[in-house]
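User: Can you help me understand a structure? I only have the sequence.
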Amino acid sequence: MRATSFIFGIILTSLVMTVMGGMILDMGKNYDRNYDNTTLASYDKLSVADSQVKELEESIGGNTSQSTGVLDLVGFYIGQAVASLKVTFTSLNAGVEMVGSATEDIGLPEEFGSAFTSIIMVFIILGVIIASMLRTKNL
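Assistant: Let's start by predicting it. Here is the structure, written out as tokens:
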């Protein structure tokens, strides 16, 4: 990855976040919406994933077992892979729950949140596929 692509990606992401933040502030002013700490606490879903990542780091770093068998090593790696998948799905679930909280706060139907989450997932998957296709030399 070239540095210019990386910097352009950061700038584009910052621009999107700024526009979305402005939209949220304008909606709050126009619709007389007041967000207090209890409302914002429903969006703090990443602390669960953060605690799981810290537990995973500690368990990987603290592997000082004396057994040197192949099965012990394979079991350790399988256990860590399962823990990593658990963290991945917890992070995805945090995003889904935040979209659900947002649609509930706005007053939209639950189906809108599901559709929005599905659209985001499709865009992410398409982005990964397109990025991988553009990296191949054969195209």
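Now, to help you interpret it: The CA atoms of residues 17 and 89 lie 24 Å apart. DSSP finds five helices and no strands in the chain. Let me know which part you'd like to focus on.
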